[in-house]
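INTERNAL AUDIT FORM
Audit reference: QA-55
Scope: verify that the stored structure record matches its stored sequence.
Auditor: D.O.
Record contents follow.
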Amino acid sequence: MYFRILLCICVIFLTACSFEKSIVDTSSDESLNGQLIENNLAMNLDSTGHIDSYGLAAFAKKIENVRILALGEQTHGAGSVFTLKTDLIKYLHQHHGFDLFILESGMYDVREIVEQTQAGQSIKALAPGNIFYMYANSEEITPLFDYVNAQLDTDNPLTMVGFDSQHTGGMSLTGLVTDLTQAQQEIDKTWVNSQQWQVFSSQIQQVLDGAKVRFPLEQENLFFNQLDKLANNFEQHDSLDNNGFWFRISKGLSAQAKRQWNLGDNRSQQMGENIKWWAEQYPDKKIIVWAHTWHLTKEGNNQINAGKVVSDAFGDAYHMVHFSAEKGQYLNFIDLKNKEVTKPVKNSIEHLFSRATSSSINFIENKGLFLQGSDLKAFANDYQDTLKASEWPTYWDSMFILKDISPATYQQ
């Protein structure tokens, strides 16, 4: 009898604790919901389908102390997100001094494209096959390329560079080894004129061509040792023109080979080092970075990513913006088929804003919100996977929530 009484007391106590916890959790999220609605920056579209000037100016005020603005994307195929990011870049360049645009595409390929545009070519024409295909072929990004082109001969051009550490564009395949050889020739003619260099440079070309088969172990070890030597040579002679650039290319080649051969994956980390290097080359410029969210988050997902490198280096001067949506479709960049945004769960910011605001776009900062312990969710990847509000500050600083997204218009 005593045991049964004790058991009943324990059950009642645990039930009460559980009930009390549920009340606290619900109350916490309700309080956060109120904060989100109160602090939300509601943005509307003008008659042309772009953010109106009030919304753009209000957003710019929110980031006035930011030097490096990172604009993420959950997937590479949301046309509405591409259009929004393009509007932001053009406005921030025209009115707030963001003069360096760093794109998730190969460092070498983008450099070659920009050099050719300075000779009269157009980015739009050169992009296919050289810039990442979802950017090169999506109709919604063409206006941004045209804008960069149009600014070239002005007093305030928008400088465009790439930061991807893997080199897969057509210009890399046909010209990188030749230009790399010429750059190294200025440092070590004996090595470049040797039979060893001929073998080494042909191996680099195999990596660029996407070779997945590893070299025999002795050759592989020699290959990576030579890549280290190459990088060290450029680093030690970085006072020569472009040698800092070639140092970064050399580090990227090593990362690319290891990734293709399944020896490790530090691609995103090297991308971060590339962003940091570009920022050092333009110390007086404010910067916008365009890439996938999970390259730009302030912490990596089981690895050191680009955002982690940049956040550690620049602290609060680095601001990462995430993008989400309440509904709509996006283009799957793998199979090029349209996919529906997953229906948001009730305990999510997307569901909250679908009920609380009619604005086309909503912007919210983490700053000032009581996020600790909250189970409120937001889409984090592919409009499917979610992340709790308590974890948002670990990865991003602010977020755009679009009412409805449409897929990128892919031009074959």
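Auditor finding: record pair retrieved intact. DSSP finds 17 helices and twelve strands in the chain.
Action required: none
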